[in-house]
Amino acid sequence: MEMQTENLMTAAQAALAQVSEFAVSYAFSILGAIILIIAGFIVAGMVERWVRSALDRFPSFDVTLTSFLSKIARYAVLVLVGVTVLAQFGVQTASIIAALGAAGLAIGLALQGTLQNVAAGIMLLVLKPFRVGEYVEASGISGTIQSIGLFATEMKTVDGLYILAPNSSLWNTSVTNYSRNARRRNDLVIGIGYDDDIDLAQKTMLELATADDRILSDQEPATFVSELGDSAVNITLRYWTTTSDWWQTRLDITKAAKKAFDDKGISIPFPQRDIHYLPLPTEEQNTGDSKKSATKGQ
Where does the Mechanosensitive ion channel MscS C-terminal domain start and stop, copy by copy (predicted)? Predict the structure, then answer.
C-alpha cells in the first residue's frame, strides 16, 4: 500500500514537473499569443471601420457592397492573426495555409453556382446597370427593382408579383433599363382609311401633341406616313416626354386621337380582305367541252 502511494506521489511530482517545465518554456509564447489575439480583434475592428468610412465617402457606392468589403477586411486580419498565433507555438504555418487553400478550393468547387451569384452581385453593385426603384427587363422577366443582394435581386412586376432572380442570370444577359434615362421617345402609330385625308390626319395628331404640356417642346413632335398597310395608311406621331410621363401620355394621346378622328370624319379601319368568287362551269359547258375533246381525238 505504501509502495502504491509512493508511486502515485512520484508520478504526480513528475507530471507537475512537466507542467511546470511546459509553463516555463511556453509562458512567453502563451502570453504573446493572448496579446496577439486581443490586439488582432482590436485591429480587425479598426480596419473594418476604416474601410466602411472610406467607402461611405463615395455616395454612389452601394451600402451592401460597403458592408461586404468591410467584413472581408475584418476576417482577413483575423485569419492573419490566427496564423501568427500558431507560429508562436512552433506550428508549421505553411502546411496550414496549404490546407486552407485546398479547403477553399474544394468549397469553391462545391459552391460554384453560389459564388458565381456573389461575383455577379458584386459586379451589379459596382457597375450599377440598375438601381432600386428602376423598371428593367432582363432574361425574359421585367419588373421594378426592390433590392439588390449579393446572391439575388428582388423584383416586383406591374401586376404585383414577387420575383427573386439569381444575380448570375441578370449579369450574363442584356438588361433594358426603362427608368435610367430622364427622357423617352414614343412612336404612336395609328392607321387611317385609304380614302381619308392624310394631311388632315397628320395635322390633327400634331395639334394633339402640341397641346399636351407633358410633351417636350425642345424636341418638336413630328408626324409622317410610316407604312402603306394592307388595310390602312399608318401615320406615326413621334414625340419626347419625361420617363415618368411616358406611359400615361401614350394612353391619353391615343384616346384623344380616336375622339379627334371621329369628330373630323377620319376612319380607323379594321383589317379586311376582298374575296372574288369565280363562277363554276355549268353541266352543259362540261358536256360540250367533253365532245370537243372527243372530236379532236378522232
Answer: 188-268
Distances (CA, A) of 36 to 51, 93, 209, 229: 22, 16, 74, 81
Query: What cell does 256 get?
Result: 384623344
The Cα-based distances of 116 to 25, 76, 208 in angstroms read: 48, 21, 51
Please name each of the domains of the chain with its CATH number: 23-110 (1.10.287.1260), 129-177 (2.30.30.60), 183-263 (3.30.70.100)
Distance, in Å, from the CA atom of 268 to the CA atom of 177, rounded to the nearest integer, reads 33
Please choose, from the candidates 36, 127, 130, the residue with its C-alpha nearest in 3D space to the C-alpha of residue 84.
Answer: 36
Radius of gyration of the chain (CA): 40
Q: Which residues pair with 185 in a beta bridge?
A: 240
- Round to whole Å and give the CA distance between 223 and 134: 31
Local structure of 200: helix, strand or coil: helix
Query: What CA dihedral angle connects 147, 148, 151 and 153, to 10 degrees?
Result: 60
Beta carbons within 8 Å of 232's beta carbon, 6+ residues apart: 191, 192, 193, 194, 268, 269
pTM: 0.60
Which tens digits make up the pLDDT trace of 32-91? Answer: 777 878 888 888 888 888 877 877 777 666 666 777 778 778 878 887 877 777 776 666
- Asked whether the predicted pLDDT for residue 20 surpasses 70, the reply is no
